[in-house]
Amino acid sequence: MPIPTISYLNEKGELASGYTPQISHEALLRGYKVMMMTRLVDDRMITLQRQGIITFAMSSLGEEACSVASAAALSIEDWMYPQYREAGIMFWRGFTPQQYIHHMFGDRDDLMYGRQMPNHFGSRSINVVTVSSPIGTKIPHAAGCAYAIKLQKEKIVAICYFGEGATSEGDFHAGLNFAAVRKVPTIFFCRNNGYAISTPCCRQFACEGIASKGEGYGIEAFRVDGNDFFAVHDIVAKARQHCVEGKGPVLIEAMTFRRGAHSTSDDPSQYRLDDEVKQWEAKDPILRLRLYLEKQGLWDKQKEQQLINEVTESINQAIAKAKETPLPPIEMMIEHVYFEAPAKLKEQLHEIKKVSLDD
Ligand SMILES: Cc1ncc(C[n+]2csc(CCOP(=O)(O)OP(=O)(O)O)c2C)c(N)n1
Ligand SMILES: [Mg+2]
User: Fold this and answer.
1) H or E stretch at 200
2) Ligand of minimum distance to the alpha carbon of 58
3) pLDDT confidence bin for 357, thresholds 50/70/90
4) Is the CB of 258 inside a 6 Å radius of any atom of ligand 1?
5) Looking at ligand 1, which atom is closest to the CA of residue 164?
6) pTM to 2 decimals?
7) Which domains does the chain possess?
8) How far lies 308's CA from each of 208, 305, 316, in Å?
9) DSSP result, 240-303
């Protein structure tokens, strides 16, 4: 039997009758602004890559409610393990466009010192564990983190974000089973956005989506409209409560759609029709929340323009600064990885320095 999708906000910005919002107007407005910031930054990063200024970019166009509304339902002490389409969690937790853009440039002021690909962000100060390129590897890590939380009797959770494609990795099964058996406080947040690069869901799994897999592990699972800020917020708040009460992990499948290309290295016109993408435009999470806020008298065209101007200006300034920021020193390639860099790496560094001097 198909698992129902929890949804409260329709495409006209109206709430289902009988539903009472569980989030304050203040938090909703902040959520709206953070989703807009995420979209404007993403859009600009794609352009910068096309101009040859940065090497690579990925956007979360149309999926912003998944990251921002879930982050809004958590506590800052909760540990986050994002994939790469979760820039919104960074902005919700106070990461600035300047910090993010230094990362996208991989310059000296990038917290990763340019050792990661762009969009592989993280920050110790806001409890966000750095993104790893190998898909799914963070799923058992989050389960392990939650085991530590349980042993230390802390009242917090670990949330792990991943796409539906990641569920084909063995790590997904190992992570969920471990978390279920040990009854640890992990929220497994799967963004089902229809595609894993060019592979559609129907070529990824034969069962009824991802939520149905929870049963097999003995994990409470929910399916939610991933483009509905209210629904995502409420289900993550409920999952958090379940976790901190010691009732074990929760699996959430957020139904959404990847409207952009997988990354700047991808051309989706090779494997899907524009019509499919167009159908999702009306379900846009930002548009839906904007219509709601306007109906409540909390938002209008003037505020919208002012927000766009302010965010665009901060992005412009951040890009200008990043362009003037030097690359990290070459030594950073081998520092902060080992307590002491192995002799082989030191030797290689010496060779690189010699070549760059010879040039
Ligand atoms: C272990 C592993 N296999 C393959 C890849 C190449 N790869 C990068 S992203 C991706 C698709 C992931 O899809 P999904 O988990 O649905 O996330 P989405 O990009 O849709 O947000 C693949 C196959 C990888 N990075 N790691
Ligand atoms: Mg996907």
Assistant:
1) strand 199-200
2) 1
3) low
4) yes
5) 16
6) 0.97
7) 25-328 (3.40.50.970), 330-359 (no CATH)
8) 40, 5, 12
9) HHHHHTT---EEEEEE----S-SSTT--GGGTS-HHHHHHTGGG-HHHHHHHHHHHTTS--HHH
